[in-house]
Specification:
By secondary structure, the chain is α/β, with parallel strands linked by helices. The chain has two domains: 5-101 and 209-236, NAD(P)-binding Rossmann-like Domain (Rossmann fold); 107-205, Dihydrodipicolinate Reductase, domain 2 (2-Layer Sandwich). 37% of the residues lie in helices and 24% in strands. It contains eight helices and ten strands. It has helices at 15-25, 42-45, 61-71, 84-93, 107-123, 145-160, 209-222, 232-236; strands spanning 5-10, 30-36, 51-54, 75-77, 98-101, 128-135, 174-180, 186-193, 198-205, 228-230. A six-stranded parallel sheet has the order 2-1-3-4-5-10, sandwiched between helices. Strands 7-6-8-9 form a four-stranded mixed sheet, with helices on one face. The radius of gyration is 19 Å and the shape is globular. Bound molecules: nicotinamide-adenine-dinucleotide. Residues 10-11, 13-17, 36-38, 55-57, 59-60, 78-81, 102-105, 141, 211 line the site of nicotinamide-adenine-dinucleotide.
Length: 238
């Protein structure tokens, strides 16, 4: 039988850390070889792992990337809310080790990314674009990483799109609305509002298992890959 992939989990005491550890218990292909949280020594535990999964806080990212680099370990990075500088640091580290960086590990949201691009291309420049997201009251970043990625997809689709018949360029303004409250795991709506019609794409996550299973699938996928920055779209072949 193939040996299970050994995962070092960073942010293990958090909501996502617990969900990943619970999901891993039911899968013989993976095992959690180490659990770390704030102020635990990362460098000591990394030797006994094949891959690192980090769902913690942006302040951990620099150390996590550096330790993965020094030990040539692949990284699955689920933490969101990075600054531009931190994002550049992740991109630089990905030149030497494989890093899978995804704002959302659910299969449904990755289908939403694909659909959003297709619909924006189909409907063209006459539709106004709005993104609405809602999360639980403890979420630290706003807008969510998923909402930001949806915005990037819409901007890209628009910049490649056709011009209006009167020669004007398409609207670049995309409304982004963040709601926080209760225990909402994660909801994202992309609204395409036109004259006399409106199309909405909605994704609702009802528990964290979907993100946890996606992260475990990503961890299995990334072991043995060449250095580079990968996304969940690569794992799913979208
Ligand atoms: P949480 O606050 O419940 O847990 C975060 C954990 O990280 C805590 O236990 C905290 O003590 C720990 N931590 C904080 N700083 C640390 C450090 N420097 N080193 C090590 N551990 C540290 O948060 P959560 O809901 O589990 O979310 C964690 C992150 O994952 C957030 O950035 C969130 O936005 C993101 N997230 C991503 C996805 C996805 O699919 N990509 C899904 C859900 C959440």
């Amino acid at each position: 039988m193939k040996k299970p992939i050994r995962i070092l989990l960073v942010g293990a005491k958090g909501r996502m850390g617990k969900a990943i550890a619970a999901a891993a218990k039911n899968r013989s292909e993976v095992t959690i070889s180490g659990k770390l949280d704030r102020s635990d020594p990362l460098a000591l535990s990394i030797h006994d792992s094949d891959v690192v999964i980090d769902f913690s806080h942006t302040e951990a990212t620099e150390l996590v990337c550096r330790t993965c680099l020094e030990n040539k370990k692949p990284l699955v990075l689920g933490t969101t809310g990075h600054t531009e500088e931190q994002t550049k640091l992740i991109e630089a580290a990905a030149q030497a080790v494989p890093i899978l960086f995804a704002p959302n590990f659910s299969v449904g949201v990755n289908a939403l990314f694909w659909l959003t691009r297709k619909v924006a291309e189909l409907l063209g420049p006459d539709f106004d674009l709005e993104i609405v997201e809602m999360h639980h009251r403890s979420k630290k970043d706003s807008p969510s990483g998923t909402a930001k990625r949806l915005g990037e997809i819409l901007i890209k689709a628009r910049s490649h799109g056709r011009k209006r018949p009167n020669g004007e360029g398409p609207h670049d303004e995309i409304g982004m609305h963040s709601l926080r409250g209760g225990d909402v795991v994660g909801e994202h709506t992309v609204i395409f509002a036109g004259q006399g019609e409106r199309l909405e794409l909605i994704h609702r996550a009802s528990n964290r298992e979907t993100f946890a299973l996606g992260a475990l699938r990503a961890a299995q996928w990334i072991v043995g890959k060449s250095p580079g920055l990968y996304s969940m779209q690569d794992v799913l072949g979208l």
